[in-house]
Design a protein that fits this description.
By secondary structure, the protein is mainly alpha-helical. It contains five helices and two strands. The chain is globular, with a radius of gyration of 19 Å.
């Protein structure tokens, strides 16, 4: 694929508020008016939330005394991917044009390469991982769980209106990537990894 495979987005935002949504309706990319409670709106709204959390992760990485430049670049690419994915979710299938921002199998392959490269350096797991051990690890797990929510809602939308399955595949792979990034960051920072110990729950004490 060429680097500039999508049409440039000539978007001009002059006003922050338009009042057009004051009656609980909003417009899809194709111009259709739908309720703000519509599952399609939920789907790309959740992706927007995930994008915000990724932004927090990037800013947190800047505060750590370690060179996370590569990971920050990867996460910035993920932010753009999520905006492209949001475009798919905000557009009815019949209105989606090849020149519009979308997700491709290449984007998923990039994530898989990142996962494989870092996972090879991680110790084997004998239990499930608990979020925490460090602030950045907790944020990466938050991103992972919100990504899973995005995936679940997209699956629900797909049962009503067929989606490009690359949307679901990308979110599925991205949640795996957040899991691996969380473990890898803990490893390079020498932070203890929290694992699930069933007997340390309330009933086990």
């Amino acid at each position: 694929m060429s680097k500039n495979k999508f049409k440039d987005q000539n978007i001009i935002i002059n006003k922050v508020y338009t009042k057009t949504g004051d009656r609980g309706k909003t417009s899809l990319v194709g111009g259709q008016k739908v309720s703000k409670s519509d599952l399609r709106i939920h789907a790309y709204g959740e992706v927007d939330e995930l994008n915000s959390i990724v932004g927090i992760v990037i800013e947190e990485l800047k505060l750590i005394n370690y060179d996370f430049k590569h990971l920050m670049n990867v996460l910035t690419r993920v932010q753009n991917d999520l905006f492209n994915l949001g475009t798919i979710l905000a557009t009815k299938p019949d209105d989606l044009l090849p020149s519009m921002p979308q997700i491709s199998s290449d984007d998923i392959k990039v994530l898989e390469n990142e996962i494989d490269k870092l996972n090879d350096s991680l110790p084997a797991l004998n239990s499930f991982v608990l979020p925490g051990g460090s602030r950045i690890n907790a944020y990466l797990h938050l991103a992972r769980t919100v990504c899973r929510r995005c995936e679940r809602i997209s699956c629900g939308l797909n049962e009503i209106e067929k989606l490009d399955m690359l949307v679901i595949s990308y979110l599925n792979r991205l949640s795996d990537a957040f899991f691996v990034w969380g473990r890898w960051v803990s490893l390079v920072l020498n932070d203890e990894e929290n694992v699930w110990r069933p007997n340390e729950g309330s009933s086990g004490t």
